[in-house]
Amino acid sequence: MRSLAELETRLESIIVGEGEKTSAGELLKCGEEILERWIEAKEGNPTTDKYEGFRLLALQRQGARGDASFNACRETCRELVYHFNLLSNMNSNSKDTTSCLQMMTLVTNHLVLFVGGKIQQAGLGEFCCSAKPLHEKEL
Fold it and tell me: Residue 2: exposed, middle, or buried by beta-carbon count in 10 A (0-12, 13-18, 19+)?
């Protein structure tokens, strides 16, 4: 299992075009690994279950229990699954394969940076993806 730093380094090398090429499966696994780090940081045991056919989605649900701000990454996880499904059903010779894989890489990187940031700063996400400050003001 890779550390947070190793995940960040691997994704950065993919983004800048250095090192080994990647696959949709590796990127999905990176997403799972960062969510495992989050659950372990909260002293939990990462689930092996699947939700809607994906362990990534089960891990996100598990990670959000007791921390509503973690739901900020729910749509990022769903987008990662979406691109995985696109690539799984796409002809490998399609010209769209490269751009779809690049987008999946960026989405995975976003997930790793967000969750890595939350591990370091517990409150991260409370305001970035919600209108909570609007609800706190008296009208």
Answer: middle
* Amino acid at the residue 53: G
How far is the C-alpha of 60 from the C-alpha of 62, rounded, in Å? 5
pLDDT(94) > 60: yes
Check residue 17 and give its pLDDT.
83
Q: Whole-angstrom Cα distance, residue 91 to residue 70?
A: 35
**Residues near 25 by beta carbon (within 8 Å), at least 6 away in sequence:** 84
The predicted model gives 15-33 an average pLDDT of 88
What lies within 8 Å, CB to CB, of 68 at 6+ separation is none
d(CA 59, CA 41): 13
Strand partners for 51: 54
Instruction: Please state the rounded mean pLDDT for residues 57-61.
Output: 96
